Amino acid sequence: MASPQSVLPGALIEPGEAPFITGPSAITDDLLEQLLRKALERGGDFADLFFEYRRHASISMEDGRVRSVGGGVDLGLGVRVVQGAAVGYAYSESLELDEMLAAAQTASRIASSGESRAPVAVKRLALTTRYPVAAEVVDAEGAARVAILRRADAAARAADSRVRRVDASLVAVHKEILVCSSTGNVGYDVQPMVRMGVSVVASDGQRVESGQSGGGGRFGLDYFERVTPEDHGREAARIALVTLDSRPTPAGTMPVVLAPGDAGILLHEAVGHGLEADFNRKRTSNYTDRIGQSVASPLVTVVDDPGIVGSRGSINVDDEGEVPMEHRLIEGGILRAYMQDRISARFFGLPTAGSGRRESFRDVPMPRMTNTLMMPGEDDPEDIIRSVKRGIYAKKFSGGQVNISNGDFVFSLTEAYLIEDGKLTGPLKSANLTGNGPEALTTVSMLGHDFALSDGMWTCGKDGQSAPVGVGMPTVILDRLTVGGTAV
Question: Alpha-carbon distance 435 to 365, whole Å?
Fold first, then answer.
């Protein structure tokens, strides 16, 4: 079964078609081979080069006034040499030849064989794009970007007289990468990104509450035809107004129904990180040595899919120069695979699979998620809610934390409702969920057919590096989970 929205008929990025940094001839094959020879002059199992060019622009509006405008350009090269489990890494913030050769020489010092290893001749890959963009937001005029924020502001204020304050922000990035490894593969990619956020404060004279809405992805200005600024303004206002009527959250162990879409962040944190291969190579994951074992309900299938068109976590090439593919991690409750980077794949004796990601040219790659999804089932979402005598409906999340070694997690909810006798009876305040990821997945007893991809808003942190990711899932019931709130 293919992942939802995983359609890749798109246009091709032909090798050298788009300019990298200063022009199509800026990074030549001869230069790549020269740098790789320098990186491998003392030996080593393999080496790679990661060139990056990034432009970003941001605007924020506070209570109807533009408060900050920012932007900048970043550029550089990272060089990695690997020998066994040891990694030599250096980077240059200049593309002057001497600076790049110095970085390659520094990285080479991890190798100790003393025998130079010649890289193979480079070959440039033609990649299928998962995010064709005609007009990037980062290139839009400042007035046009301010107008987008003003539209969200106006819609939020028009939603209700109890809206007291509206803040909004817009961040856009144009990123180009060129990755070359000593295997010879050269991958070039243009990676656009846009993210909008709206925050609303509402008051009824007695209580003051807030609500947020945000989204985006690897889109251009066309994103605002899919989800308008007004949509985000009204949604942030709706959540703030709903929270004005919220009641204390009951505490205890009870059934929890996860809403489709945003609830996928629980899957990402509580399960996904434990399936990244480096944690299993180092034997620090709860899933270590469990390939082929039952780790979830038979209803549960989890995939990591880099190919969802326009999704925040999608990539055409990973940061080690590999063409990424869908990873079926858990299938029918059975653990099938980990997400591998090149070092972990060598350790496990597996082919590389395209899960190596890094924050920038200053960082080493590591196994990371892209778009982590729980596949849909066959149950009617209304039937799932009707099956609950007393429990919680978790609709929106603000994030969470997980202990990789044992899978324990805690998540905060920004929108949740009490379920009583199969019906949603009222919004809840200050709800959080506590549990164990692998254990929670074994309690899945119903799985909806209503898969939804969360709008592009999530950023994942790991070992000090941030990476954009996507999440998605259908309506799911967890039969037992600890809900933190106010004891009643």
Answer: 30
